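FKB95-like N-terminal Kelch domain-containing protein (Salix koriyanagi), 148 aa
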Amino acid sequence: MADRSGVVYEPKTKKWDSVESGLDLGWRGRACVVDGILYCYDYVGNIRGFDVRTGVWKELRGVENKLPKFLCGATMANVGGKLVVVWERKGNVKEMEVWCAEIEVEENGEGGVVGRVEWCDAVHKVPHGVVNCSLLGCFDLRISYSAP
């Protein structure tokens, strides 16, 4: 999926197409899918999920006071079935911090989606002026190693 003016790619048919207008109108930023729900942040910085079964956007409840508003620059990934959000935040005057939150998400049985922030913290600090950096993506990477 693209960030805006959405397009989708169907690997089975190897075709690109435009997304339906209800989906396209609701999202902003880097999105990901967890348990069939497409999560992203909306135009006022709240995390929302699009349920493809009902064609409805739903605000993720339960995380409102535990996370900042994501107005730009946040990226999301499905890591082991959890919603992981990574974003930049100004640290002190001399550094930029990369923050990460891991969120357990689920449908609440009443048609909504709820989240529980399992942890949220700075994971890396980058000195200002050393490099011009920006978050581009977030990936679930698993490495296994067997000693010879």
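The beta strands are 7-10, 15-18, 28-34, 37-41, 47-51, 56-61, 75-79, 82-90, 95-107, 113-127. The first helix runs from residue 21 to 24. ok done for today
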